[in-house]
Amino acid sequence: MDFVLGEELEAVQELARQIFTGHATPERIKAAEQSETGLLDAPLWAALADAGLLGIALPEDAGGAGLGVAGLAVLLEEQGRVVAPAPIWPAVVAALTIAEHGSPQQQREILPALVDGTGRLTIALEEFAPADPAVPGCTAVRDGDGWLLTGAKAAVPTPFGASHILVAAGSADGGPGLYLLDASTPGVSWERTRTTTCDSAGQLILDAAPAQPLGDGALATALRLARVALAAVQVGVAEGALRLAAGYLAGREQFGRPLATFQAVQHQLADCYIEIDALRVCLWHAVSLIAAGEDAEPAVLVAKWWSDEGGLNVVHRVQHLHGGIGVDVDYPVHRHFLWGKQISGTLGGASQDLELLGAAL
């Protein structure tokens, strides 16, 4: 299959690369890691909004560019390439889910603020137990015309400063679903935590917190989009790490020769290149099926599994190829390793993905 980007997506890629490269300096990344809000560089977020990139995937009637999941994948690849501190995937996955399954009122109240950068969303899918995120332990109980959520969600990405949260919960009469929660509503509390990527994430504690339901199928849509989004970030992370290694090894000499000319090193780099190529093919196969409205579940799980397995292989190899400097937590390649490690365990990790894939097949 031909996964060459068209003119529109190439323009998105070029614009995103320019913005991320200009803003994601080592100093700015480190400042975001040490901030109270987590991996959120405010000037970068504003620049993405001004360029229309936060709404790149949203439908045109919601104020977006209408490029769908393909536009999101291009944007996230470029972010991963330089590990730019911006919570794009949780915010845009939540927004796309609302655009597809939210009520007209929810869409009017939530989506414009994301597009112009004045509001931000996040999504709470994971819990502490080793369980399928499609079968949440958090409970939703009817309360008149609304719902009350009770339970705990783990490692919610960059929640501090977000106006709304999409929460996965199960109900006795409606089964698993997705609920829109105002972050300032009663019954919501947080326990701060730090993730592998140095994000200031939160454990979300819900005690009869009022929320609004999204339409049927919202949770399945959110999980599908989240897996594709994480796979897209991982492609960029792995490719960015490989480029760092190639530059380092070309300039580092041993026995009067650049390290990049040693056969053992070349084999390691070749293995990384092959795995990244497989990552990208699996990602864009899933994206193309989603865009065509076809059954994409097996392809999405393959892309997510490969991003967990192959992506982690790449960042491991690349860090080893940097030798002693690879363990320096301030050296750029270390951040690629941390991002790759974090993505490889999000939404269950490789073993969970294989189990789900087996069930789907």
Layout: helices, strands, pairs:
Elements (H helix, E strand, L loop, with lengths): L6 H17 L2 H8 L8 H9 L17 H14 L6 H14 L2 H12 L5 E4 L14 E5 L2 E11 L7 E8 L3 E8 L5 E7 L5 E14 L4 H34 L1 E2 L2 E2 L4 H29 L5 H25 L10 H14 L3 H12 L1
Parallel strand pairs: 1-4
Antiparallel strand pairs: 2-3, 3-7, 4-5, 5-7, 6-7, 8-9
| Envelope shape | globular
Put simply, the count of helices is: 11
Helix percent band? 40-55%
**What is the rounded Rg?**
20 Å
Total domain count: 3
Order of helices and strands: HHHHHHEEEEEEEHEEHHHH
Largest sheet: 7 strands, mixed
Q: Give the oligomeric state.
A: single chain
- The CATH class of the largest domain: Mainly Alpha
| Cα end-to-end separation | 22 Å
Strand content: 15-25%
Question: How many beta strands in the DSSP annotation?
Answer: 9
Classification by helices and strands: alpha+beta
Give the gist of this structure.
The chain is α+β, with helices and mostly antiparallel strands. The chain has helices at residues 7-23, 26-33, 42-50, 68-81, 88-101, 104-115, 218-251, 263-291, 297-321, 332-345, 349-360; strands at residues 121-124, 139-143, 146-156, 164-171, 175-182, 188-194, 200-213, 253-254, 257-258.
